[in-house]
C-alpha cells in the first residue's frame, strides 16, 4: 500500500488517521537503516521552491522538491548547496529522485563538511508533521536564530523517526570562480592522513581532503576553491609547504574527482558490505590497521581528512564485521553505521551506532514525545537491542 | 516582567539545603552571605534583579553532579551561570534558587592541532580559548563582543554569535562535543573529536537550550588555522536603504567577507564621541572585513569597493595598516559602551531577512518617534541580526515600561517580516512572554516536551524561555 499526499494539510491528516506504522519516503533513494514494515507515505507530492532570495543566501523549499531542481535553480544564480549532499543512488543502486527533505532528514553531507559544515549547519528552519498529525515549525529563514530550542538540528539526522518534514529553509552559498585539486599517489594511509592534517591545519582554507585506497595505488587529494587568483596563490603556497610534487588538477577535472568522492562511487556496483565510520581523523590509520590485523580485509575511502571512513569489506562474516568495527569504536570513540548490506543483515545488526544507556534513554524519551504511537519509521534508527537496553 | 513566586517550603528549608551543599563541596564553594550574593542577583540585563538563596562554585564535573543530586532531591531550582553577561536575563535567579556557577572550571584539558580541536572546562572565557592556541597559529571562531568576559558555558547555552560569524558560523557550528550533567546528576557525553552524531543530534539540541536541559561542564571546540591576514574597509552612505542595497549586492556577487557590520547615525555619532575612530558623519556606515594573503585581500576589497562605488558612497576608507584597522574596529566594538554614556539603553536582538533591512530600519525610526524614544542601530548586516538600542532614563518613572513596549513592537515587526525574536542573545526572561509572536502553542508545547524528557521535574532554570502561563502546568506538576 502506498499513500501520496499533495499538501501539508493532507499529510497531517494521513498521519493522524494512520492505523499502523508508516514508512516515510521522499525520493526513496536512501534505503538505509533497519527495514521498516509499514505503509509507505510519500512526500514527493509536496514539491516546489516557495522562496529564493539570492541576495540573502536563503532558500525555502517543500520537502519533496527534487535536489536536481534545487541545484538547477541555484546554479542559475551562481549559487549552490554548500554541504554537497551525496547521491546515494550510486552506492546503493537505488532508483528515484533524491529530495531536499531526504537530504536534511538524513543529514547527508559531502567532502566539504570539513570546511563549510554539514547539512544540519545549513538548515535554518523546518515545518514538520509529528506523530500525532500536528503541523509544527521550528527555526525560520534567517541565518541567526536562537529563539527557543533548536529542533531543526534534532530533526536533521532523525531519518523521519521524529516527524515528517514538509518544508525546509536553507542557507545557500555562492559557487566560487574555480577550484583545483592537489593529488599524490602511492602514500600509505598514515602518511596520507598526516598530509591531509597538514593541509587542514594550514591557513589556506582547504575544502576537501580525502585519501583513497580502492585500487592498486592509493590516491590522496586536497581541494582548494575560490577566485582564480586566490586558488593559484594557495596551490603555490601549499607546494611551498610540503606539497611540492603533488599534481595539480584544475576546474572541471577537479570537480569530477570530488563528485566521485561525494558519491563513494568507487564502491558502487558490487555487493560488498559498506560501513561508514565517523572518528577522530588521526585514529583512521590505527583503526584500519587493527581491523586488518584481526582479519577484516577491507578497502577504504578516507574523507574528511580521515575522519569519515568508508569501508568496503571483502568478507565480513556472519556479523558483517560488526563486532570488530564496533569494538574499534568502543576503544577510540566516534560512531559506525552499516550503510550497505542485505535487508536480512540490516534487520539483525544495529545499523546505527548503539548509544550508552542514559543517552539511548533520552532518544527514546524524545521519540515518545514526538511520536507517541510509534508510527513514524519505527525501528529505523533504534533496534530492539537499543530498546531493551537501559 | 514577572517571575514565579518563590516556594515557601524551599525558602524554609534553606539552612538544610546549604548544609547539604557544604557537605558535598569543598570549603568556600558555597556562598550564602547576602553581601557576597549581590554579584549573582542579575546578569547583563541588570534592570531585573533578585538575590538567589545561595550560590555554589563547584570545581569539577563530579562536584556539579553532586550539587545537582542534592538540588534534585530537594526540588530546588538551579540556575546555571557562566560569567553572567547574558543580555536576556538567562542567568537571573529566583529567591528560591541555587546559582550554579562554573567560573572555577576554566582549565584547558586537551589541545590537538592534528585533529583541530581543543577540549576545555566550560567556565573558560571565550577569548582565553583563542588565547590558548593563538601562539601556534590557531583560533576559536565565534567571537561575541563580550568575549573577554563571557564563558564557553554561556556561549553554548545561548548559541552565541559574533561579528565574524558570517563566514565561520555561530557556536553550534563550531561545537563538537560536550560533557553534560543532567538534572538528576547523571553525567553524559555527547559528540567528541569526531563529526556529527551516531544517533539523534542531541548536541545540536543542547546548544542554545539556555541552561534548561543540562549543565555543560566540558566542551570540545573546533579550532581553525588563522588566516594570513585580515583588513577592513569603511564605507559611508547617506541613507540606510542604499547601505542595505550595497550589502545585498556584495553577497549576490559571491563575495563572502568575514564580517559586514552596520551602524546608523545615532550610533556613529556616539562611537565617534567616545572612541574617536575617525568615522565620517553620515546616515549609515558599513565595516566590511575580508581575510587572506595580502594579494587576496587586495583582490576582494577591490571587488567590494567597485560594488560600493555603484551606490555612490559619501565616504570610503580602506585600512592601510594594522593600526588603522584596529581604530576602525574600536568604534564598533565599543559602540554599546558609547551608547551607554548617553543614557540607559535596552539592546534588542531580532533577526530579519537581509532584504527587509531598509523597511525595518525606517519603521524602527517611526516607532521610536511614536514612543518619544531614540533608537540607535548597530548590527551584523551580513546575516540580518539587528541590535536596535533603545535609549531611556531608568530614573524617569514609566520610561523603562515605555522602552519595553517599544522593544516588543520592534521584535514583533522582525517576526512579521519573516525574521525572529532573537538572533544571538537568547530568550531568557526578556522575550519569554512574547514567544507566541513567533510560535504557536503547539510549537511551544513540543519544545517543552523536550524539556520534560531531559528534566522531568523542571529543576533547571525553570522560569525562562517559555511564557510563564504556558510552562506553569509543567513547572507546578513536578
Ligand atoms: C557588552 C556585551 C556584548 C555582548 N555581545 C554579544 C555578541 O556579540 N554576541 C552574542 O551572542 N552575545 C553577546 N552578548 C551576550 C552574552 O555575552 C552571551 O549570551 C554569552 O554567551 C553569555 O555567556 P556567560 O558566560 O556570561 O553566560 P551567563 O550570562 O552566565 O548565562 C547565560 C545563559 O547560559 C546558561 N548557562 C550558563 N552556564 C551554563 C552551563 N554550564 N550549562 C548550561 N547552561 C549554562 C545560563 O543559565 C543562562 O541561561 C553580549 C553581552 C554584553 C554584556
From TrEMBL, chain A:
Say which domain of life the source belongs to.
Bacteria
Q: What class of enzyme is it?
A: oxidoreductase
Alphabetized, the UniProt keywords read: FAD, Flavoprotein, Oxidoreductase
A molecular-function term among this protein's GO annotations: FAD binding
For this protein, the Enzyme Commission number is 1.1.99.14
All copies of domain FAD-binding PCMH-type, residue ranges: 1-175
* InterPro entries attached to this UniProt entry: FAD-bd_PCMH (IPR016166), FAD-bd_PCMH-like_sf (IPR036318), FAD-bd_PCMH_sub2 (IPR016169), FAD-linked_Oxase-like_C (IPR016164), Oxid_FAD_bind_N (IPR006094), Vanillyl_alc_oxidase_C-sub2 (IPR016171)
Q: Does the keyword Flavoprotein apply?
A: yes
Q: What is this protein called in UniProt?
A: Glycolate oxidase subunit GlcE
Gene encoding this chain? glcE
From TrEMBL, chain B:
The keyword Chaperone belongs to this UniProt entry's keyword annotation: no
Q: Which InterPro entries match?
A: FAD-bd_oxidored_4_C, FAD-bd_PCMH, FAD-bd_PCMH-like_sf, FAD-bd_PCMH_sub2, FAD-linked_Oxase-like_C, FAD-linked_OxidoTrans_Type4, Oxid_FAD_bind_N, Vanillyl_alc_oxidase_C-sub2
What cofactors does this protein use?
A: FAD
Task: Return the SUPFAM superfamilies for the record.
Answer: FAD-binding/transporter-associated domain-like, FAD-linked oxidases, C-terminal domain
Q: Give a Pfam family name.
A: FAD-oxidase_C
Where would I find the FAD-binding PCMH-type domain in this sequence?
48-226
Q: Tell me if Endoplasmic reticulum is a UniProt keyword of this record.
A: no
Keyword field = FAD, Flavoprotein, Oxidoreductase
Which GO molecular function annotations are given, in alphabetical order? FAD binding; oxidoreductase activity
Q: What is this protein called?
A: FAD-binding protein
Q: Which lineage is the organism of this entry classified under, starting from the top rank?
A: Bacteria, Pseudomonadati, Pseudomonadota, Alphaproteobacteria, Rhodobacterales
